[in-house]
From TrEMBL:
Bilayer-crossing regions: 30-48, 54-75, 87-105, 117-141, 153-175, 187-206, 237-255, 267-290, 302-321, 327-355, 367-388, 400-416
Main location: membrane
MF (Gene Ontology): symporter activity
Top-level taxon in the UniProt lineage: Bacteria
Organism: Amycolatopsis saalfeldensis
Domain Major facilitator superfamily (MFS) profile: 15-421
Family: Belongs to the major facilitator superfamily. Metabolite:H+ Symporter (MHS) family (TC 2.A.1.6) family.
Name recorded for this polypeptide: Putative proline/betaine transporter
Amino acid sequence: MSAPADTSAQTLRRTTLAAAIGNTVETYDYAAYGFLATILAKVFFPAASPGTALLSSFAVFGSAFLARPVGALVFGPLTDRLGRRPALVASLLLMAGASTLIGLLPTTGTIGITAPIVLVLVRFVQGLAAGGEYTTAIIYVAEFAPPHRRGALASRVQVGSLAGFLTGAVVVLSLNAALTQEEMLAWGWRLPFLLALPIGAIGLYLRSRFGETPEFLAARRQQSEKDTAAGGQWPRAVLLAGVSVLHIIGIYMVYTYVQSYLIQLRLSAFTATVVVGSALVIGLFLVAAGGRAADRADRPKVLLATSIVVFVLTYPLFAVLSAVPPLWLMIACTVLLSAGPAFYSGIAPITFVQLVPVRVRGSVIGVSYNVAAAVLGGSAIFVCQALVEATGDRRSPAYLLMAAAAVSAVAAAALVRKPTFSPTITPQPAEAGS
């Protein structure tokens, strides 16, 4: 997997930014929804008890994930047949449009039960877009990257995802500081979703300026029947899904659910968002560090070691958090809780790409990753809250993250024993700049 000789550092930076910004829009919307979950519960489920309303709000959050495999079935073949860039442009248009529409929705107080139904439908459209966004973006960057920087550059797509979470945290934090609770319930909750439109417009401009990846062009010219048979790749797809478990549950749990968890521990929405925002800032650097480690170390072994660390530390950290310690200790625990998943998520993207041959990457990575995301990502915060409601034990969300670490440790161990990284196709200079 090599970049053409005339690919400049500036072109690589712009290409990476163009690919990452779509994931920024995606996770910004998910973060805004997660950070506003307690308010959206009152806006769209006003008649329910607080606990039931919050569970309903989290269930709507999860509805977007159910659409992701469907989106992968659409965008995956599009990515493999027409190219990476057309899929990236289409997914960004759909994502930004749906996110903006949430900010324009009438509430339950205005149109009754129709409001949450329409909200679910819009979230489903977002899920369709997300089914082609993240995996296509990491493929696009990795296929442009020079061999010695594949991990570092692919991890920047995940940095873009965390930047979306951080942007969502900052926006919601600013609104909570500037507006009263009544103003947030009346109209303030709309503003974060409307902001997706200008962010998406910037991303669309950047993506429209770049061409297809050199490796895709070379693969299309050297196409063979074996390379295009996606059906024979499913053993690798199972491994990919296993590797993705900690990445998916860890990121959505610690950067989305923990804020609501802290509010239930009697922290203000402002303080809880500050705590998670602090973890996000550190997480940006840890994802980048994971990407650099992916270029310098044995990836499966690092994934395995990180999974084990997360498994060991998660329960003690939740135990301290559940006791409502001083604020400084709460920040420290949240940072440590997110550190392992963040570092792991810097290594995972290039691992996904190298597991699958070029000609079927969009389909195989897209479907396997998004099936895992549909089952695990959307349900993570719902399951965490359901565990607390069912057991009354504030430490119980730890079990979900520990289970995720255990599953990914098994997948990483399988890669350590029998690496299955696929060969790449060397692009030819004649078409590299197309």
